[in-house]
Design a protein that fits this description.
The complex is a heterodimer of chains A (248) and B (224). With 248 residues, chain A is of the alpha/beta class. Chain A is built from 9 helices and 10 strands. Chain B has 224 residues and is an all-alpha fold. Classes of the chains: A alpha/beta (248), B mainly alpha (224).
Chain lengths: 248, 224
């Protein structure tokens, strides 16, 4: 189970969000939507301390910590229980696809190399890149790189995978293959939190859609409900805009 | 004007070559020590270790800001007067020490620039899978920074090989010192210094080939 309680983040005197609560059960899939610049990515990055929250409690699986008192070891433990998929893939440029996936297992989990590479090969098969094991990131397309990025997250065997706008940097022709892989993970009941502008994906895959605007979470509901009967004025406005943009 | 004494020059080649190993040993030892020190300084600068960072800045400023010859004289002739236990320091050791300190200051800055140049998202990715800062440096950042810094570092190495010639001012008979002695005996200065110039040139040229090969190897991962 994942639980965020009273999370606050501010940059200087600018409060990005305050008192954010969010809970999800194992196997649940949450999609966070909202206008740009409202802290969706920042919230996601607070969950694994890529950004340090200024207040609040975090629980991931059997680990609970308080943002203001978190120790170095707690943060490392938190990061081992979460995995992150980056907008710009962020693959290790000096490592092959196979090594990118195996790296965490070898260095962080201390799994023997042979075993780690065997598991990494199995993951490469699942993400449809078995033939690219020895390719370096520079030789892969954007879509392939992002699938390796997702593969690296899968290898972490985390309680939850956090996706930060995973298709926003992709050329249009690669978007479907990445969304397809994410749907495949969803079908396997991988717990995930996804920040995205892909409303169709949210509609199809999310168990719950969270709408964020200035200052925090405005409302959350299953997609059928949120998309057809948004309660808050701001949600209605946002959906009108984005649906109009998608039609044109 | 007299004609070049070719026979003298040819005879000089094997004599001078017998001093080449010492020159290369000093350069190799200096380079090895300078690399370690430079990496240390660069990591201190990048991670802004309090206290140490100020020391690194001062160190780099001093050793970049003063001539190598002055530093060598300072270590060899000057320092033993202050720190008397250094009286036993010999010219070779003083040269290696001087080369190490001098070149590590330059190399630290190019290694730092290479580290800073590795895009930040890879750092975040490494942290996100639970790596410690040390693991991140060792496994992800430094291997890539090495590739970026290699051309510059090789240039410094070439410069260092040539700078070993200053050791003769500390009374070390290396390649340059030996040439000086031979020339003083024969009065054929032009011939002698021409021979030694060509020897340095060939060594550096050979090293440039190594550099090319090394860069190609290091670039393999980044080819499309």
């Amino acid at each position: 189970m994942i639980e965020l309680k009273g999370i606050r983040k501010q940059f200087g005197s600018h409060i990005v969000f305050d008192d954010v609560d969010l809970q999800l059960e194992r196997g649940e899939i949450i999609v966070i939507v909202g206008p740009s610049g409202t802290g969706k990515s920042t919230l996601l990055r607070c969950i694994n301390f890529l950004e340090t929250p200024d207040a609040g409690q975090l629980t991931v699986g059997d680990l609970s910590l308080d943002a203001t008192t978190a120790t170095r070891d707690q943060i490392l433990a938190l990061r081992r229980r979460t995995a992150f998929v980056f907008q710009n893939y962020a693959l290790f440029a000096n490592k092959t696809a196979l090594q990118n996936i195996a790296e965490g297992m070898i260095v962080v989990d201390g799994i023997a190399k042979r075993e780690a590479y065997a598991r990494a090969r199995e993951i490469l098969g699942r993400i449809g890149l078995a033939d690219k094991a020895d390719a370096y990131p520079a030789a892969l397309s954007g879509g392939q790189q992002q699938r390796v990025g997702i593969g690296r997250a899968m290898a972490a065997n985390a309680e939850v995978i956090l996706f930060d706008e995973p298709t926003s940097s992709l050329d249009p022709q690669w978007v479907e293959e990445v969304l397809g892989l994410m749907k495949q993970l969803a079908a396997e009941h991988q717990t995930m939190i996804v920040v995205t502008h892909e409303m169709q994906f949210a509609r199809e895959v999310a168990d719950r859609v969270v709408f964020m605007d200035q200052g925090g979470i405005i409302e959350q509901a299953p997609p059928s409900e949120l998309f057809s009967h948004p309660k808050d004025e701001r949600t209605q406005q946002f959906l009108r805009k984005i649906l109009a943009a998608n039609k044109s | 004007m007299h004609a070049l004494d070719i026979d003298y020059m040819l005879g000089l080649v094997p004599i001078l070559l017998s001093y080449l190993p010492l020159t290369l040993e000093m350069a190799a030892a200096g380079m090895a020590c300078a690399l370690v020190l430079a990496c240390l300084l660069a990591v201190i600068r990048v991670s802004r270790v309090p206290g140490l960072n100020a020391f690194a800045l001062l160190f780099i400023s001093f050793f970049r800001g003063t001539p190598l010859l002055v530093q060598l004289f300072l270590f060899y002739y000057g320092l033993p007067q202050v720190l008397t236990f250094l009286v036993a320091i010999n010219g070779v050791t003083a040269t290696i020490l001087g080369l190490t300190l001098h070149f590590s200051a330059y190399m630290a800055e190019s290694i730092r620039a290479a580290i800073v140049g590795i895009d930040r998202s890879q750092t975040e990715a490494a942290l996100s899978i639970g790596m410690t800062r040390a693991q991140l440096m060792r496994r992800i950042v430094l291997p890539q920074a090495t590739r970026v810094a290699t051309p510059t570092l090789m240039n410094y190495f070439i410069d260092m090989i040539k700078s070993t010639s200053l050791a003769f001012t500390l009374g070390v008979t290396e390649l340059m010192g030996a040439t000086q002695k031979e020339a003083a005996g024969s009065f054929l200065y032009f011939e002698a210094f021409l021979v030694v110039a060509v020897i340095y040139w060939i060594v550096v040229e050979a090293l440039s080939w190594v550099q090319k090969w090394l860069e190609q190897r290091l670039n393999r991962a980044y080819q499309r």
